Amino acid sequence: MAVPIAVLDCDLLLYGRGHRTLDRFKLEDVTDEYLVSTYGFPRQFIYYLVDLLGATLSRPTQRSRAISPETQILAALGFYTSGSFQTRMGDAIGISQASMSRCVANVTEALVERASQFIHFPEDEATVQTLKDDFYGLAGMPGGLGVVDCTHVAIKAPNAEDLSYVNRKGLHSLNCLMVCDSRGVLLSAETHWPGSLPDCTVLEQAALTSQFETELHKDGWLLGDSSFLLRTWLMTPLHIPETPAEYRYNMAHSATHNVIERTFRTIRSRFRCLDGSKGTLQYSPEKSSHIILACCVLHNISLEHGLDVWSSPATGHVEQPEEEYEQMESVDSEASRVRQELLLTHFS
Q1: Contacts by 2-11 with C-beta closer than 8 Å and gap 24+?
Q2: What DSSP state is assigned to residue 164?
Q3: What does pTM read for this prediction?
Q4: Which residue, among 218, 323, 221, 317, has the nearest Cα to 276 in the 3D structure?
Q5: Domain residue spans in the chain?
Q6: Would you place residue 217 in the very low, low, confident or very high pLDDT band (cuts 50, 70, 90)?
Q7: Interval 273-287: pLDDT, tens
Q8: Is CB count within 10 Å lower at the N or C end of the chain?
Q9: What is the three-class DSSP state of 346?
């Protein structure tokens, strides 16, 4: 006799057909220590994200039983901070690996939609002056509006045979251009550039350059390393310092530039999906770029909420060394004049 085989819907058995949303996991049922160790963030921070993203994550769906915003956010945070879709992560909140992937996609896009809300340069004069004062207090570098640098994030090889994502080490990556303030808060983040592009070319083509050249930030500048060309709005170190003033300038520049190097390290430390310890991001360049940007948004929100990642011990995978670069020499006479004036005025 044939035995009928029924495919059981476990969610249906557990929750019934009348439930529109599956509340598989309750934040109030676990400790803050558990949330931080498993999802990387404490309860109040997660509640904030639920308030921020809840409406977007509750968009109408054709499915009879949608996953709650809270569960989607936990799934995404679990992936961002662990870099893994391990079964235990899905088991903890009661969803499958496929659902985990959908949750990460949904939360990522919701965060990317809000990137300009959390990542931007200050506009009012008082905040700009505070930005400069903080940089000056850090290492004595006047006029600082931000520190700029690039960092590579490894991705899987695109389906198309596109060599533009192969960097100088022969690995597929995205070259991400970022600017931060003296606390490590990101002021700009462009995460979509192909890994084959050198830092100077990324900056040349970036929206950041257009922003500074069209808005004419005459009373300040960014600080960048020698992989970039000197510009009137971008101060780079002197290649071969000779005078005491030039040595003092380079020392102040180096100490200030270290802020963004620390920022890169701590972002990778908090968001393990970016550090390579679990392998490359297994997404297309576009989706990988969005995941990186989503982590940048979370980085800024965490600092806004007093969660200082610099005070957290770094564990696990050690960041891979960045791309080597050639020393760039400026051909901009006006930029050279601005730097020389800075040397005479503040470092002589």
Answers
A1: 11/65
A2: G
A3: 0.86
A4: 317
A5: 32-57+67-113, 119-284+329-347
A6: low
A7: 998 776 789 899 999
A8: N
A9: helix
